[in-house]
Design goal:
Elements: E1 7-11, E2 18-22, E3 25-29, H1 44-67, E4 74-85, E5 88-99, H2 105-115, H3 119-127
Antiparallel strand pairs: 1-2, 2-3, 4-5
């Protein structure tokens, strides 16, 4: 199976403002004022956190549908945490997942496991090699 997913990002002449194209969809990326940007769009990290949250929620919905579980609205809040450790600033991500409907402890345990199977989260965990080429 050869599946190719492409996202193309072009940095404009406006400092850190970038334009992204994904299939037939467009988005912009920028940095906050304190980092020298214009704060006209989310940062790359904010898009990454959003991608993880979106993927986790969709993965959970797909699993719940197969099991016949009605979870109602699924909310995934993803945040980046920075702590000072022996190697300097260490970053980690925290996913806070909530459901509109009540779930059992057994469902809770399974859904936490399934959340870890989200393809975007697996990429971030280092399971996907990145090859950089200058063409």
């Amino acid at each position: 199976m050869n599946k190719i997913t492409i996202s193309e990002v072009t940095l404009t002449q406006k400092k850190y403002l970038a334009e992204a194209k994904m299939r037939n969809h467009f988005a912009v990326i920028d940095e906050p004022l304190k980092s020298g940007g214009s704060d006209t769009a989310p940062t790359p990290v904010e898009y990454l956190l959003t991608a993880i949250g979106g993927c986790v929620s969709i993965t959970l919905r797909m699993y719940a549908e197969r099991k016949g579980w009605d979870l109602g609205k699924i909310t995934v809040k993803v945040s980046q945490k920075e702590t000072l450790g022996p190697k300097g600033i260490e970053k980690s991500l925290i996913e806070e997942i909530s459901f509109e409907k009540e779930i059992t402890d057994k469902q809770r345990n399974k859904l936490v496991e399934i959340a870890g199977r989200c393809p975007v989260a697996k990429m971030v965990k280092g399971e996907t090699p990145i090859e950089s080429l200058i063409i």
